[in-house]
Amino acid sequence: MKIAITGATGFIGHHVRNILKLTDNEVLLVTRDARKVSTLFSNESVLLANIGEFDQEWFSKFGEPDAVLHLAWGGLPNYLSQHHILVELPMQIRFLTSLIESGLKKLVVTGTCYEYGSLMGALSEHHETMPSTQYGIAKNNLRKILFELQQRKNYELAWARIFYPYGEGQSKTSLYSQLHTAVRNGENEFPINN
Description:
The protein is an alpha/beta fold. The chain has a single domain, classed as Rossmann fold (3-Layer(aba) Sandwich), CATH 3.40.50.720. It has helices at residues 11-20, 58-61, 83-101, 134-149, 175-184; strands spanning 2-6, 26-31, 44-48, 67-70, 106-112, 156-162.
């Protein structure tokens, strides 16, 4: 299977690559900055591209993959920025719609727990979304648009909501990273986001 990954050099992308390297899939890493790809696994190749620059030929430039894992999203970690609605959402819609209109049959997009708003307790994919951040609103709108597009285009869509990921490669300014460092150093307290 040919799989293209956007956002492959990010935190989530790094972990996805580590799983896909164990498969016989042909993997295309789509990145704006090839310097961020320090090591290529045997089943990987790189395409230098900025998905924010509209191009109706993205699907063919990606080698007409069987599936796209879309992990890319700019403007993070500022979840309240208007950038998510004014810049990121329209760009994401243009990019993903062009792939689908050109023949993409399988699409996986990362969503976010911020689509649920400030709900607490156990959640399921059947809970109503009530986003309260600009990031959550933009992601939720993208999800709705992509599922509506399935009414006109025959493609499979998996919306993978991510909830508070942590682990190797995470930003040093994340709460988890700071807590982990403080515990490792035997500190009783630490300043958040310093």
